[in-house]
């Protein structure tokens, strides 16, 4: 078995048959392969690894170059995708070999964190990933926002084809990246494909600045306005975009819009009848998962007061003893116990347990009840890594 990295052009002959078989209706038509080849220019910066035997590609994994905000600090992130093994070669340990290779390489290239959408979370839990919240989708009739139809708000909304509104849309996303824990974006090469999507974008501006943007399409007259994630820098941006939706009364029956789990749609209006929900099931609708690839790179992250020596177990990337201290609200990370008061770690965590604390999705007692760490240093860890729910935005 040979494991090697391939370039974007080679993905069509090697990875396409695996991912098309795994994720698309099949058999596929020759034009599907041609369409895939055409898209490969958007994968020029993607790191793709394959396993080959006798010239046949049996498995592949890839990492998209992304960036993610983790508690206010933006890191390079490996967005894991295209994970597939030929059905005849499954359960032979090929992804077990490929995925750690990929994560090692991405860490060496500067990625401090990684994220993915799993087909089954327990599979990626073996590789140190832990779940974070899924996005929510709110569904309501535009009549529910009638209070906004004539409201005189200090700003305006422009509707454009996405290709024309791309710069404004991208600026709204980059602003969210800077300000929202968990938010992630693709690099320019990968993101360029989304610019070509057949989609509208509504851009809200106030005082000459972009304060919100949302991608959407309308499926039918009297049907649904289907909006993607609502990207707002604050309540005015949200109100402007909701007002824009409200003005589709008698044109569409419903508006559906994806939103940050921290948003509370029932507070968007009086008498607004709204359903906001998330759906999680295998293999198609799973909440994202994340993990830390580089503990030392977390130095400088905002953290509550405290000091603790942890041992991360069973993980080749971040395993070992780490001294974590926060003074004045900033985390300092030191490898080992050298130079610290403590001589041995006082809590043992798995990579997933540590990642859960860093991302703020589980508190230390939950880390223990989930089997991801010991029940010690609970108060210190809770103070240093307070819960703070991330919102991963990624259109993949
Ligand atoms: C999921 C998939 C990629 C696994 O690839 P693989 O090469 O068979 O995986 P491996 O043999 O390396 O297995 C790695 C580990 O996961 C376990 N595993 C494999 N498939 C699993 C599954 N469906 N559910 C839970 N665990 C699984 C293996 O037992 C092994 O455990 P171990 O390391 O403790 O021994 C492959 O089955 C596949 O291509 N499925 C269809 C496409 C897909 O779902 N891809 C993932 C998209 S997120």
UniProtKB/TrEMBL annotation:
GO molecular function, one term: aminoglycoside N-acetyltransferase activity
GO terms classed as biological process: aminoglycoside antibiotic catabolic process
Residues of the N-acetyltransferase domain: 1-152
InterPro entries: Acetyltransferase_Eis, Acyl_CoA_acyltransferase, GNAT_dom, SCP2_sterol-bd_dom_sf
Cross-referenced Pfam families: Acetyltransf_9 (PF13527)
SUPFAM superfamilies, alphabetized: Acyl-CoA N-acyltransferases (Nat), SCP-like
Highest taxon listed in the record's lineage: Bacteria
Classification via PANTHER family: N-ACETYLTRANSFERASE EIS
Protein name as catalogued: N-acetyltransferase domain-containing protein
Organism name: Paractinoplanes ferrugineus
């Amino acid at each position: 078995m040979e494991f090697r990295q391939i370039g974007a052009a080679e993905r069509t002959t090697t990875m396409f048959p695996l991912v098309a078989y795994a994720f698309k209706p099949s058999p596929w038509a020759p034009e599907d392969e041609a369409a895939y080849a055409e898209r490969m220019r958007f994968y020029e910066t993607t790191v793709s690894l394959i396993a080959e035997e006798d010239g046949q590609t049996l498995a592949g994994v890839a990492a998209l170059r992304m960036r993610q905000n983790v508690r206010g600090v933006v890191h390079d992130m490996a967005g894991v995708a295209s994970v597939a093994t030929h059905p005849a070669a499954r359960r032979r340990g090929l992804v077990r070999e490929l995925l750690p290779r990929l994560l090692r390489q991405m860490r060496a290239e500067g990625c401090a964190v990684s994220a993915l959408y799993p087909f089954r979370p327990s599979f990626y839990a073996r590789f140190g990933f832990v779940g974070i919240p899924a996005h929510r989708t709110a569904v309501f009739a535009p009549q529910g926002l009638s209070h906004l139809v004539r409201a005189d708000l200090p700003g305006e909304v422009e509707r454009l084809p996405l290709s024309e509104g791309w710069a404004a849309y991208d600026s709204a996303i980059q602003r969210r990246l800077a300000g929202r824990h968990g938010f992630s974006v693709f690099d320019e090469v990968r993101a360029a494909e989304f610019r070509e999507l057949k989609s509208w974008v509504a851009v809200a501006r106030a005082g000459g600045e972009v304060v919100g943007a949302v991608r959407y399409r309308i499926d039918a007259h009297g049907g649904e306005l289907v909006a993607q994630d609502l990207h707002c820098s604050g309540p005015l941006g949200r109100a402007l975009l909701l007002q824009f939706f409200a003005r589709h009364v008698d044109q569409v029956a419903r508006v559906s819009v994806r939103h940050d789990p921290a948003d509370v749609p029932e507070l968007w209006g009086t008498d607004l009848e709204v359903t906001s929900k998330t759906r999680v099931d295998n293999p198609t609708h799973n909440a994202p998962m994340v993990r830390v690839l580089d503990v030392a790179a977390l130095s400088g992250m905002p953290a509550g007061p405290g000091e603790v020596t942890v041992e991360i177990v069973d993980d080749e990337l971040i395993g070992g003893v780490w001294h974590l201290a926060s003074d004045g609200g900033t985390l300092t990370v030191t490898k080992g116990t050298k130079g610290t008061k403590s001589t041995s770690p006082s809590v043992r965590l798995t990579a997933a347990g540590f990642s859960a604390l860093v991302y703020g999705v589980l508190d230390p007692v939950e880390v223990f009840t989930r089997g991801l760490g010991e029940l010690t240093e609970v108060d210190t860890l809770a103070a240093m890594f307070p819960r703070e729910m991330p919102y991963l935005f990624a259109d993949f």
